[in-house]
Design a protein that fits this description.
single chain, three-stranded antiparallel sheet, 3 helices, alpha+beta
């Protein structure tokens, strides 16, 4: 498993599937921020308390333009990052809770797929 320092994604490939760079890849370290997934505002408001309740350290980055306006909207997307050391546990937690939610399942599948595209 390799970590892209530019994209903050995991991969088993020799080239990052997101940015296409090989020189940014290295073995992950426990405190590396790893992209868990990107979800809409509504799902982000459900996921945040779950991560907090389970004491999973995370950071959330707004990907929408409303951040420039000082607010959030229902159309905004958020990227969630967790330290590499907490990545597997966060995936397991959210996969179990959101097993029936297509949007979260797809976002998680993408995260896992990026990490396993070489398998």
């Amino acid at each position: 498993m390799l970590y892209c320092e530019k994209c903050h994604r995991l991969t088993e490939s020799e080239v990052c599937p997101n940015c296409g760079r090989a020189r940014s890849l290295r073995p992950p370290q426990a405190d590396d921020p790893v992209l868990l997934f990107t979800v809409r505002y509504v799902l982000a408001t459900m996921i945040e308390p779950l991560l907090e309740e389970e004491k999973v350290p995370y950071s959330k980055l707004s990907l929408g333009s409303s951040a420039l306006l000082g607010g959030s909207t229902m159309l905004e997307n958020y990227a969630f990052y967790v330290p590499y050391a907490a990545y597997a546990g966060a995936l397991e937690l959210l996969t179990g809770i959101f097993a029936e939610d297509d949007e979260v399942r797809m976002a998680l599948r993408e995260a896992v797929g990026i990490a396993r595209e070489a398998e």
